Amino acid sequence: MKKTIALAGVVLLLAASAAHAQLGSGTGTTTVSLSVSAEAALNVTTGSTSLTTAGTNFSSYTGSTGLTYFIRTTQTGGSGSITLKVTSDFSPAHGPSVATPPSTGDALTYTCTLAGAGTACTGSVTSSTTSSTSVVTFGAGAHTVTFPGGDTATTAWTLTNDPKYYTGSYSATITFTISAT
After folding, report:
1. pTM over 0.70
2. How sure is the predictor about 120, in pLDDT bands with cuts at 50, 70 and 90?
3. Other CB atoms closer than 10 Å to residue 84's CB: what's the count?
4. What are the phi and psi torsion angles at 58 (to 5°)?
5. Do the domain assignments include residue 38?
6. DSSP designation for 149
7. Euclidean distance between CA atoms 1 and 78, whole angstroms
8. What does DSSP assign to residue 5?
9. How are strands ordered across the β-sheet holding 133-138?
10. Whole-number Å distance between alpha carbons of 38 and 179
11. What is the distance between the alpha carbons of residues 68 and 43, in angstroms, rounded to a whole number?
12. Which domain holds residue 96?
């Protein structure tokens, strides 16, 4: 019986010693890993854009809308864009219209400028109620240049001043969309 108790004591001491050895040391390491994906975010900084005329008879209405954006596209084969679409045409009736202008040649057009990543639209672009039109395009490996503030773009609007427009106030809704792959 003394041998059994002594043997049991040795087994307990070995088990306690092994448990103590598994508690660790004063330092340790881990590997932190992540997968960075394509992302994009957009902020329209001009919540309400007023179009005004220079005051000469029937000169076009003009105004501008500012944007701040963040973009990261995939290094190989990635792309991205900022587009806009007239999602609610001018109202009320009898004023300007993007979908059904009162005269041929009436249009809401815009030009683009940017400070940062991407390529701005070229020339004057005619806005549409049926399809999105380009503001900025991005290629593979594009990324925001100005962080944390974001890169900026501007759409400078021009609306034909048609004598057929009835007097009054008119508004339309423009929806900007950014995407990245």
Report:
1. yes
2. very high
3. 23
4. 55, 30
5. no
6. T
7. 77
8. H
9. 119-120, 133-138, 80-91, 171-180
10. 9
11. 5
12. 60-180
